[in-house]
Amino acid sequence: MATTVAGVHAVPKSESGLWSWITTVDHKRIGVLYGVTAFVFFLIGGFEALLIRIQLARPENTFVGPDLYNQLFTMHGTTMIFLAVMPLSASFFNFMIPLMIGARDVAFPRLNAFSYWVFVTGGIFLNLSFFLGGAPNVGWFAYSNLTSSQYSPGHGVDFWAVGLQILGIASLAAAFNFIVTIINLRAPGMKLMRMPPFVWMTLVTSFLIILAFPVITVALVFLLFDRFVGTHFFVPSGGADPLLWQHLFWLFGHPEVYILILPAMGIVSEVLPTFSRKPLFGYPVVVYSGIFIGFMGWGVWSHHMFSVGLGPLADSFFALTTMLIAIPTGVKIFNWLATLWGGKIELKTAMLFALGFIALFTMGGLSGFMHASPPADLQQTDTYFVVAHIHYVLFGGAIMGVFAGIYYWFPKMTGKFLNETLGKIHFWATMISMNLTFFPMHFVGLLGMPRRVYTYPPNMGFDTMNLLSTIGALLLGASVLVFVVNFVNSIRNGKPAGSDPWGGGSLEWAIPSPPPSYNFATIPTVRSLDPLWHKEGREAALAANQVRGPIHMPPSSYWPAVSALGVTLLLSGMVFGWFVGIPGLILMLLGLYSWAFEPVT
Amino acid sequence: MAARRHTLKRRLAAMGAALSLILLAGCTLHQFPQSSLHPQSNYAQWVQDLLEQLTFWVVVIFVAVQGLLIFAVLRFRSRPGAPEPKPIHGNTALEIAWTIAPAIILTLVAVPTVLTIYRTQSPPPVGSLKVKVVGHQWWWEFQYPELGFTTASEMIVPVGRPVAVDIESADVMHSFWFPAMGGKRDAIPSRTNHLWFTPDSLGDFPGQCAELCGISHANMRMRLSVVTPTQFEAWVSGQRGPPMEPDSTSPAGEGKQTFAQSACVACHTIQGISAGVVGPNLTHFGSRHTIAGAMYESNPSNLGKWLENPPARKPGTLMLNLGLSPQQISNLVAYLQSLK
User: Fold this and answer.
1) pLDDT value, residue A280
2) pLDDT of residue A508
3) Which residue has better confidence, B328 or B30?
4) DSSP A58
5) Does the distance separating the beta carbons of B212 and A139 come in below 8 Å?
6) I need a labelling partner for A340 at 20 to 30 A (CA). Which of A395, A447, B111, B139 fits?
7) Cα distances (angstroms) measured from residue A480 to each of A129, A441, A487
8) Is the CB of residue A336 less than 8 Å from the CB of residue A275?
9) Are residues A468 and A594 in the same domain?
10) How far is A549 from A86, CA to CA, in rounded Å?
11) Cβ contact (<8 Å) for A345 and B54?
């Protein structure tokens, strides 16, 4: 695969064409695949949200029926969490982590490709359910025993459970890959406490994934056994307690919330210092807070279950642990504010989104603080108040963070700038319409509107606020279109960006944009957290671009894609039947065997 | 010291109340009948008191953080010729301060939270009215075990007397929620949950299922009527008596025949006629104000449409379209409405 440059050095060149994308093991190209695919799913999930909002625009609307409505909100939640936000984060992990730690690729490049192909085929499988008898309609949390064969006889729940198992494989493989990459492939001199905050948050997130996904895997195995084999893990008539599902689900589900938000916190911790021209204030504390949040995320799951009646002792315990998490979260927010303080703030679009993150995430945190208190939560849970809360955290937090990351690293990924004017329009339209959509939901929830209702009567006083939310959602959709136009246009005609357009401090800014396939011709030595902001560090980092010898890069391979397709077909055979499962099994075994014995070049 | 603490507490309470008043300016229970912010029972009031304290701190923190954020961005915005900022890496004293400050606020909130948890989950007072609530897809059943009758969709209680509710489910998870009376509690198959409250004002209060329970979750409504003790006694004696016996030649009498001879009896109980338990008990159906899980007002027109084709009026309902003739329907309507 390696070609010879200038007769002396064997330096790999990049390739093009569809086949090269299918066979690529280059972390940057896989990052692009992740990003583009996840963004398509983000648009699908957003479209589902718009249908939901149109249905709720006025009382007793008949735009979509109750069954389709339940499918839409189930798939909206599932899609946004598993197919949009997580893989958008994975896109940044893939593209940026090796660049930020001074590596040429991830530790297991073919496993990385495998993760992507499992993710995309799993996502397609899950969405096929819309056309094959109906999508899952039991909520993204799929509480037992509504999911039992008796109460959900169709295939929707099967699609959901099998789909999540498939996506779990992708997440687990990726998380192991990034842990090994971050632990083992850091450039010389990059001690743990010299890692950029985004790398730290990726590490914490990856640990959360490998610990949390086995829990949901077990729960899903139980559920699938109940549905396919007739066991009674969650069936009350067989003596089961359906609360088992809730405990297992939230033991996974709460860490999952941090899996969604910590990467965005990492991005914001990169963007704020760069555009304040100041180092991150209290870097160690920001890192420790992130670790502490990840750790404490395991001790709060029952705050999703205050209404099930666990008793006053359990309610008090989980209220206190939940409130405890507010401390490291507050510390992070104050450290970000202190990073701005005394800085020289440049309001580029990336910075605007990072600031928007702080403003909106704080609001989500505060409403979360309100239902950390169980008596208050009992009035708020399962109402639109919580819908407002999760969207301030996940849209105002995770998605704003992702957009900050896109505007920040797009020049590194493509060598071109995104248009700043359109970017600012995008930002302000997002801020305004986001608040118009979700702020009234706090009130409509407190005034008694439950979640997951396809309709509401006209005499409840819910009409105006719902109409406002719907108008906001349509504007929010339009603001995403502004971004899409900007993105497509900038890829073609964007202003060229140099290697370090923002004056960033971390290693990725030392190499050309877009980076060569091998990233660093010579692995640099790192002496500080922000090497490019110090004279010696800068010289050392820039020296990384001098080719000094042959560079061995992993050869491309189609076996990861074949294995991934096999895995997905094998598991989807549970829904479709043996005639899909058996070929899947054969394909998977063939793929893994050939992968293992693929000759090294 | 005690006096000072007392004033501080009162001041805080006053501020909290002021804030929530601002929040609720112009909102009344009439405009928002299902509001959780207009407590009508001791339980709902305890929750409200706690919520006011929480809201106070939330507003304080919100103003502080957003204020600092906006100030920092305006004040430290890059200006031409401004010097490069000092590379400050941190400040231990400051960081300790903003770790301790939230911890103090959280303690101030945690104490009343735990007290309220224990207060709201204490055993119900002796002499409470016992009501057993059973969630069904998609309607609520109310049993009054000590009084010996069962009704559906409408719960009636006397003002000022504690009500101890046992909450169960006949099929999937539901959640029992009358916002005016306080927080919700899930109805879980295989478990019995408990809740108690003392309603302190007269009136009708809507409630509905708050846990996704299938296709007609949105249509699983209910109504609480808080009445005077005298009205309650009158209602109870009506419910305990046998159903009204219609004149056999009247339309209602014809309707009774239709009821007794059709599939109705498989699912519904009317005392002395049938013993079905799949659907709501209809013994005193005529005394209720709503039908189909409090989805529609009870009147001949709505009831007729309902009997004509239940699944078309309430998606997913277990009540079948029995293919009744218009004559049968009008007789049934007359009969059911006569069951005072």
Assistant:
1) 95
2) 94
3) B328
4) S
5) yes
6) A395
7) 26, 21, 10
8) no
9) no
10) 38
11) no
Q: Are residues A578 and A503 in the same domain?
A: no
pLDDT digits (tens, 9 = 90+) for A357-377: 999 999 999 999 999 999 999
Please classify residue A600 by burial: count the beta carbons closer than 10 Å to its beta carbon, then call 0-12 exposed, 13-18 middle and 19+ buried.
Answer: exposed
At A494, which CATH number?
A: 1.20.210.10
Judging contacts by C-beta atoms under 8 Å, the chain B residues touching residue A358 are 65, 69
Length, in residues, of chain A: 601
Whole-number Å distance between alpha carbons of A235 and A394: 33
- Do A506 and A595 fall into the same domain? no
Q: What is the pLDDT of residue A553?
A: 84
Q: Which of B89, B190, B194 has its CB closest to that of A242?
A: B190
Please tell me whether residues A421 and A347 are part of one structural domain.
yes
The nearest CA of chain A is from the CA of B4 a distance in Å of 27
Cβ neighbours of A144 in B, within 8 Å: 173
What is the biggest distance separating any 2 CA atoms in chain A, rounded to whole angstroms?
81
Of the partner residues A239, A337, A450, the one whose CB lies closest to the CB of residue B72: A337
Can you tell me the distance from the alpha carbon of A431 to that of A364, in angstroms, rounded to the nearest whole number?
A: 14
Question: pLDDT, tens digit, for every residue of A168-215?
Answer: 999 999 999 999 999 999 999 999 999 999 999 999 999 999 999 999
Residue A531 lies in a domain: no
Q: Is A282 within 8 Å of B217 when comparing Cβ atoms?
A: no
Residues A570 and A426 in one domain: no
Is there a single domain that holds both residue A501 and residue A565? no
| Strand A4-5 versus strand B296-297 pairing type | unpaired
Cβ burial B143-172 (10 Å sphere, 16+ → b, else e): bbeeeebbbbbbbbbbbeebbbbbbbbebb
Residues of A in contact with B182 (CB under 8 A): 378-379
- Chain A contact probe: residue of B48, B54, B220 with most A CBs at under 10 A: B54
| Cβ <8 Å between A460 and B33 | yes
User: Mean pLDDT lowest for which of A333-342, A429-438, A526-535?
Assistant: A526-535
Q: Which residue of A has its CA nearest to B294?
A: A457
B51 contacts on A by Cβ (under 8 Å): 370, 376, 379
Residues of chain A contacting B87 with CB distance shorter than 8 Å: 278-279, 533
Q: Please state whether beta strands B163-169 and B129-136 pair in parallel, antiparallel, or not at all (unpaired).
A: parallel
DSSP A211-231: HHHHHHHHHHHHHHHHHHT--
Q: What are phi and psi of A464, to 5 degrees?
A: -60, -45
As a whole number of angstroms, the distance between CA A157 and CA A146 comes to 10
Residues A488 and A569 in one domain: no
Number of domains chain A contains: 2
The pLDDT of residue A4: 36
- The letter for the amino acid at A71 is Q
Contact A263, A201 (CB under 8 A): yes
A594 burial via Cβ count (<10 Å: 0-12, 13-18, 19+): middle
Structural domain contains residue A15: no
Whether B184 and A307 lie within 8 Å, measured CB to CB: yes
Angle in degrees, CA A149, A152, A155, rounded to 5: 90
Domain, as residue range, for A486: 31-148+158-524
Q: Which of the listed residues A524, A541, A567 is the one where a domain comes to its end? A: A524
Which phi-psi region, left, alpha or beta, contains residue B293 (left: φ > 0; alpha: ψ -120 to 50)? left
Q: Minimal Cα distance from B96: which residue of A?
A: A331
Q: Distance (Å, rounded) from C-alpha A449 to C-alpha A486?
A: 38
Contact A277 B84 (CB under 8 A): yes
Could you please report the per-residue DSSP string of B100-141? HHHHHHHHHHHHHHHHHHHHHTSPPPTTPEEEEEEEETTEEE
For residues A489-502, average pLDDT? 94
Residues A501 and A598 in one domain: no
Structure tokens at B47: 């929750």
Does residue A593 fall inside a structural domain? yes
Task: Using the 3D structure, point to which of A476, A509, A524 is the last residue of a domain.
Answer: A524
- Assess if residue A383 is contained within a domain: yes
